[in-house]
Design a protein that fits this description.
two-stranded parallel sheet; 3 helices; 143 residues
Amino acid sequence: MILLPKTAARSNQLDDNMIPLINIVFLMLIFFMIAGQLTASELIAIKPPTSQQQSAIAEHDAVLLISATGQLALNDVFIKAETLIESLQQNISENNNAQSFRLLVKTDANVPATELTDLLKQVRAAGILKVSLATQTQKTRND
Protein backbone atom coordinates (compact mmCIF):
# COMPACT_ATOMS: atom_id res chain seq x y z
CA MET A 1 0.00 0.00 0.00
CA ILE A 2 1.32 3.36 -0.96
CA LEU A 3 0.86 6.11 1.54
CA LEU A 4 0.18 9.49 0.08
CA PRO A 5 0.76 12.52 2.19
CA LYS A 6 -2.39 14.27 3.33
CA THR A 7 -2.91 17.58 1.70
CA ALA A 8 -2.37 20.18 4.29
CA ALA A 9 -5.23 22.51 5.02
CA ARG A 10 -4.84 25.73 3.12
CA SER A 11 -3.05 28.17 5.31
CA ASN A 12 -4.42 31.66 5.67
CA GLN A 13 -2.87 33.93 3.20
CA LEU A 14 -2.35 37.58 3.95
CA ASP A 15 -4.73 38.56 1.15
CA ASP A 16 -7.64 36.77 2.80
CA ASN A 17 -7.70 39.33 5.59
CA MET A 18 -8.09 42.18 3.08
CA ILE A 19 -11.35 40.98 1.52
CA PRO A 20 -13.63 42.19 4.35
CA LEU A 21 -11.87 45.57 4.33
CA ILE A 22 -12.37 45.93 0.59
CA ASN A 23 -16.06 45.07 0.99
CA ILE A 24 -16.47 47.76 3.65
CA VAL A 25 -14.72 50.36 1.50
CA PHE A 26 -16.95 49.60 -1.46
CA LEU A 27 -20.08 49.77 0.71
CA MET A 28 -18.99 53.13 2.07
CA LEU A 29 -18.29 54.37 -1.46
CA ILE A 30 -21.76 53.35 -2.62
CA PHE A 31 -23.35 54.95 0.46
CA PHE A 32 -21.63 58.30 -0.09
CA MET A 33 -22.42 58.25 -3.79
CA ILE A 34 -26.12 57.79 -3.04
CA ALA A 35 -26.34 60.04 0.02
CA GLY A 36 -24.02 62.76 -1.23
CA GLN A 37 -25.18 65.66 -3.30
CA LEU A 38 -23.06 66.57 -6.29
CA THR A 39 -24.08 70.00 -7.53
CA ALA A 40 -22.04 72.91 -8.68
CA SER A 41 -21.95 75.74 -6.21
CA GLU A 42 -22.94 79.25 -7.19
CA LEU A 43 -20.29 81.86 -7.90
CA ILE A 44 -21.90 84.15 -5.33
CA ALA A 45 -23.32 82.73 -2.11
CA ILE A 46 -26.92 83.90 -1.87
CA LYS A 47 -29.89 83.14 0.33
CA PRO A 48 -32.98 83.56 -1.87
CA PRO A 49 -36.16 85.20 -0.58
CA THR A 50 -39.04 82.98 0.48
CA SER A 51 -42.22 82.49 -1.47
CA GLN A 52 -45.46 80.58 -1.05
CA GLN A 53 -45.68 79.71 -4.74
CA GLN A 54 -44.19 76.32 -5.56
CA SER A 55 -43.72 76.26 -9.33
CA ALA A 56 -40.65 74.65 -10.80
CA ILE A 57 -37.92 76.70 -12.45
CA ALA A 58 -38.33 76.63 -16.21
CA GLU A 59 -35.51 76.33 -18.72
CA HIS A 60 -33.44 79.49 -18.94
CA ASP A 61 -30.78 80.84 -21.26
CA ALA A 62 -28.86 82.93 -18.72
CA VAL A 63 -28.58 83.27 -14.93
CA LEU A 64 -28.07 86.61 -13.19
CA LEU A 65 -26.83 86.40 -9.58
CA ILE A 66 -27.19 89.37 -7.24
CA SER A 67 -25.46 89.24 -3.86
CA ALA A 68 -26.46 91.11 -0.72
CA THR A 69 -23.49 93.43 -1.22
CA GLY A 70 -24.55 94.30 -4.78
CA GLN A 71 -22.12 92.07 -6.69
CA LEU A 72 -23.44 90.85 -10.03
CA ALA A 73 -22.57 87.69 -11.92
CA LEU A 74 -23.97 86.72 -15.29
CA ASN A 75 -23.50 83.06 -16.24
CA ASP A 76 -20.77 82.58 -13.60
CA VAL A 77 -18.79 85.65 -14.68
CA PHE A 78 -18.53 88.74 -12.47
CA ILE A 79 -19.81 91.89 -14.16
CA LYS A 80 -20.27 95.50 -13.15
CA ALA A 81 -23.70 97.11 -12.92
CA GLU A 82 -22.69 99.59 -15.63
CA THR A 83 -22.06 96.80 -18.15
CA LEU A 84 -25.19 94.77 -17.34
CA ILE A 85 -27.19 95.91 -20.37
CA GLU A 86 -24.29 95.26 -22.76
CA SER A 87 -23.63 91.80 -21.28
CA LEU A 88 -27.30 90.85 -21.53
CA GLN A 89 -27.53 92.07 -25.13
CA GLN A 90 -24.46 90.01 -25.99
CA ASN A 91 -26.13 86.91 -24.48
CA ILE A 92 -29.28 87.64 -26.47
CA SER A 93 -27.29 87.93 -29.71
CA GLU A 94 -25.60 84.59 -29.00
CA ASN A 95 -29.03 83.00 -28.52
CA ASN A 96 -30.24 84.37 -31.90
CA ASN A 97 -33.84 84.78 -30.69
CA ALA A 98 -34.62 87.76 -28.46
CA GLN A 99 -38.31 86.87 -28.14
CA SER A 100 -37.71 83.48 -26.53
CA PHE A 101 -34.69 84.47 -24.41
CA ARG A 102 -35.31 83.58 -20.74
CA LEU A 103 -33.37 85.07 -17.82
CA LEU A 104 -33.30 83.59 -14.33
CA VAL A 105 -32.55 86.12 -11.59
CA LYS A 106 -31.21 84.68 -8.32
CA THR A 107 -31.02 87.41 -5.73
CA ASP A 108 -30.22 87.47 -2.04
CA ALA A 109 -33.13 88.10 0.32
CA ASN A 110 -31.27 91.10 1.78
CA VAL A 111 -31.13 93.01 -1.52
CA PRO A 112 -33.33 96.13 -1.20
CA ALA A 113 -36.40 96.13 -3.41
CA THR A 114 -35.43 99.47 -4.95
CA GLU A 115 -32.08 98.06 -6.09
CA LEU A 116 -33.77 94.97 -7.52
CA THR A 117 -36.30 97.15 -9.33
CA ASP A 118 -33.49 99.23 -10.87
CA LEU A 119 -31.74 96.07 -12.07
CA LEU A 120 -34.96 94.72 -13.56
CA LYS A 121 -35.40 98.01 -15.43
CA GLN A 122 -31.94 97.48 -16.91
CA VAL A 123 -32.94 93.94 -17.87
CA ARG A 124 -36.01 95.33 -19.65
CA ALA A 125 -33.86 97.99 -21.36
CA ALA A 126 -31.64 95.20 -22.69
CA GLY A 127 -34.68 93.77 -24.48
CA ILE A 128 -35.41 90.74 -22.28
CA LEU A 129 -39.12 90.05 -21.94
CA LYS A 130 -39.13 86.76 -20.00
CA VAL A 131 -37.61 87.02 -16.53
CA SER A 132 -38.01 84.59 -13.60
CA LEU A 133 -37.07 85.33 -10.00
CA ALA A 134 -35.75 82.32 -8.07
CA THR A 135 -37.09 81.94 -4.54
CA GLN A 136 -37.14 79.23 -1.91
CA THR A 137 -40.30 77.77 -0.46
CA GLN A 138 -41.46 79.01 2.88
CA LYS A 139 -41.18 76.29 5.50
CA THR A 140 -43.98 76.08 8.02
CA ARG A 141 -43.34 74.74 11.48
CA ASN A 142 -45.78 72.43 13.23
CA ASP A 143 -44.66 72.78 16.82
